Amino acid sequence: MSFLRRKSADQGSDVAVVAEPEAPTVGKGRPTPKQNQAQGRRGPVAPPPKTQREAIKRSKTVGKTLTKDERKVASVQRRERMMRGDDAYVLPRDRGPVRAFVRDATDSRRNIAGILLPVALLSFIILLINNATVQLIGPFILLIAILAAVVDSIAFGRQLSRRVAEKFPKGDPSGLSIKPRSLGFYAFNRACLIRKWRVPRPRVGRGDAV
Questions:
Q1: Which of 116, 128, 100 is nearest to 199 (CA)?
Q2: Average pLDDT value for the chain
Q3: Deepest in the core among 32, 82, 166, 189, taking most CB within 10 A?
Q4: Cα distance between residue 76 and residue 151, in whole Å
Q5: What is the pTM of this model?
Q6: Angle (CA) 187 176 80, round 5°
Q7: According to the 3-state scheme, what is the secondary structure of 132-187?
Q8: Binning pLDDT at 50, 70 and 90, where does residue 133 land?
Q9: Model confidence over 38-73: pLDDT tens digits?
């Protein structure tokens, strides 16, 4: 028995068997994908961010794999698309065709609410003047401007709600509220800002038909 074992061992030493290394397996016995195959696989596209904080957090996560110049270019592109009113980049309150129509209608008219910020600044400057009579003028002017802006905004809000109901009888496709109070408040907030500060930027000029 020992002779047979020695002979089989001697025969095995004459033949060199080279075994190819097996590919490492992952999971259920599948070979590890190559780098180019792994990079070619893409999952589902992530939905657009719902809040500004979520957009900033996501941009920081993506930005870790980009260079400084690439992050700068991507930031400029996001800013430009948001200013153009792209629904994938604007805030949730600005999305949808109804909000876009309200913005255009607000930007196409001269709103009294637009003078509130300049009047408030003027009133503050007047309060700095060391004169009791002059100091009474500032709050009085500001009060008149606020009352005029409120009356003008209420009238415009009613007109706007009728136009929205006619143009969008089935409601906003994006699912946002089209209640008159909601649209009026949205238009008032935009009208209070100077045109250069409005986001998204105005697409129409004053006096243009909407």
A1: 100
A2: 79
A3: 82
A4: 39
A5: 0.65
A6: 65
A7: HHHHHHHHHHHHHHHHHHHHHHHHHHHHHHHHHHHHCCCCCCCCCCCCHHHHHHHH
A8: confident
A9: 444 455 556 666 676 676 676 666 555 678 888 888
Angle 132-167/97-107 helices, nearest 10 degrees? 130
Q: At what angle are helices 116-127 and 132-167 packed, to 10 degrees? A: 170
Q: How confident is residue 185, by pLDDT bands cut at 50, 70 and 90?
A: very high
Tokens of 21: 């290394």
Confirm if 82 and 89 have CB atoms less than 8 A apart. Answer: yes
H or E element at residue 30: strand 30-31
On the CB side of 184, CA atoms within 13 Å amount to: 16
Q: Hey, what are 65's tokens?
A: 């794999």
**Residue 26's beta-bridge partner residues?**
30
> What backbone torsions phi and psi does residue 31 show, to the nearest 5 degrees?
-70, 150
Contact between residue 164 and residue 178 where contact means Cβ atoms under 8 Å apart: yes
The stretches of the chain forming alpha helices (DSSP H) are 2-14, 35-40, 52-63, 68-84, 97-107, 116-127, 132-167, 180-192
